[in-house]
Amino acid sequence: MEPIYLDHNATTPLAAEVSKAISDALDLWGNPSSLYEKGKMAKNAISKAREQIASMINSHPSEIVFCSGGTEANNNVIWSVLESFDKWKESTGDKHIIAHVITTSVEHVAVERPLKYWQDKGRLEVTFVPVDPSTGAVTVDAIMHAFRPTTVLISIIMANNETGVIMPILEIGRALDKYRQERKSSSRLPLFFHTDAAQAIGKIKVDVKELNVDFLVIVGHKFYGPRIGALYVRSLDNDVEYYPMLFGGGQERGYRSGTENTPMIVGLGQAAEIVIKNLAADQNHFRLCRDELECCLEKLFGDSILFNLRVGNRLPNTSSVCISRDGIYNGHELLSRCPFVCASTGSACHSGSKPSAVLIASGLSEEKARSTLRLTVGRSTRLEDVRKAAEAIKKAYDSMTCS
Q: What is the b/e burial string over 254-290, where b = at least 16 CB atoms within 10 angstroms of the residue's CB?
């Protein structure tokens, strides 16, 4: 039987148009920093891709910085915020002030781990705000309650990669306006709002002007693009301070040194163009397939199944499902018994035998977290595929109950 791919939150295949754009751009081998024609051609292609990505999120092209991916972008945001805080601290003459960061208990490890690293180094203090276990989302009140006079960064994932839960970024951005205005008229301590939008782009509308964020992370391979990324920085060069983490030749206007990977950047731009044109249709298709999958599973499993956090606002393609309500079956073992269903039990970035920390932080018991599957549909998923996948999962489950 042909494999059925239901792990689109882990990665997506290159769209055919993206693959062609990358292939064509291999001829643009000139160094974009060179002044002769070959270099200018590469530079122009990069400029076009920057415009496409900016259009996708409703920003200005000058606010887009290309990078290797989400991990680099998230780390650089945190580094930049620390640099901004240190410069402000120097102006106060108080060397004992420590920066404070607010985030959630369900962040991707590309945000969680660097924050913990700098906390261990004594460079910052972090408040990990728990989510509401009934929805899996953090509340605006909980974020605002954690606010301190030394808070310099609020970092909230836009949509969780494991549960699909969408966070109230828009509402948090509005609530922060009050604090931003107070800071400008008093201490002048910078206050930044950052969101990792890796799982959101290509699945829901992402408009940086509506969201009122300072930093937004873009990851190509989550929306049928290549494995590079980009970072949105609000009013770069004018309003938000942004300090590079990598130094060298000064590419990307000095914000990210390293000779640009022209073909991959062109591919990222093409992937953005597809999102611009097809987002509404993709959303409808995702939701149709996801809902059919859940309907089939409910019919096959009855009371034995539990859909995690289905009551909240979630991505249209994502289903987090506990196959056994009592949590006695291991998700890894279940998937091993239906190998042609390509799915996961949690984030591909930290897969292993331990139950997902994100699921536990979202209110699940360890037993239920171990029994959970993450099933995520994509553009190429068919209704026939999800029906077959549900049947295969039920067959694997029955084989476990009989053994």
A: ebbeeebbbbbbbbbbbbbbbbeeebeebbebbeebb
Q: What is the pLDDT of residue 352?
A: 55
**Structure tokens that stand for 240 in this block:** 């938000």
Amino acid at site 85 = F
Q: What are the Cα distances from residue 372, in Å, to 4, 147, 220, 398?
A: 18, 34, 27, 16
Outline where 233-382 has alpha helix (H): 262-301, 331-336, 357-361, 366-370
Distances (CA, A) of 90 to 86, 87, 122: 6, 5, 17
The pTM (predicted TM-score) of the whole model is: 0.96
| Residue among 338, 342, 349, 402 flagged as catalytic | 349
Dihedral sign for Cα 110, 112, 113, 114, please. Answer: positive
Residue 349 annotated to the active site: yes
**Residue 195 — φ and ψ, nearest 5°?**
-135, 140
Q: Are strands 229-233 and 64-67 parallel, antiparallel or unpaired?
A: antiparallel
DSSP β-ladder status, 99-104 and 306-307: unpaired
Query: For the segment 370-390, what is each residue's pLDDT rounded down to a tens digit?
Result: 999 999 999 999 999 999 999
Cβ burial of 400 (10 Å; 0-12, 13-18, 19+) is: middle
pLDDT, tens digit, 9 for 90 and up, residues 21-63: 999 999 999 999 999 999 999 999 999 999 999 999 999 999 9
Give the C-alpha separation, 219 to 11, whole Å: 10
